[in-house]
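Readers of this paper often ask what the protein records in our data store actually look like. An entry from our holdings is shown next, in its original layout:
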Amino acid sequence: MTIRRAAAGDAIPLSELSFRSKAYWGYDPQFMEACREDLTIRPEQIRSGAVYLLETDGGEIAGFYSLLPPGSVGLSAPPVAELDSLFIAPEYIGRGYGKRLWHHMLATAAELRLPRIRIHSDPHAEAFYAKMGAVRIGEIESTVFPDRKLPLMELVLAAL
């Protein structure tokens, strides 16, 4: 397995992976179609953020994450980065790949000297993030469904 920085040409396979990964949790087709735009990874997102993917020895993309630096999504001081995406292909869920990507994300955050990371979590992913050390600090409104609330989590990496 290899973790490498994503290239702009990876946008389509990463978008497809994020869609399949979200669907894994049993959301109905109408819900998934409404989420398609939010699950789409664009080449400019890859160029401007820290987007890394995990490839199997056979070259298959098993998962990826996208870390947005402070200020890129309008978050205020103190500087807070956002874990915009962390998705694992359904066929690889439960094999420790999410944990490998998480640890890589932590190393990336340390290199960028990020003091904290916010996560707008899917309810099904909240337990994973909590196990990794993030804490729920509230709720945030879904960007797709205004009446739907999502867990807002934070991971403090360094004292401010």
Remarks:
- The longest strand covers residues 61-68.
- The chain has five helices and seven strands.
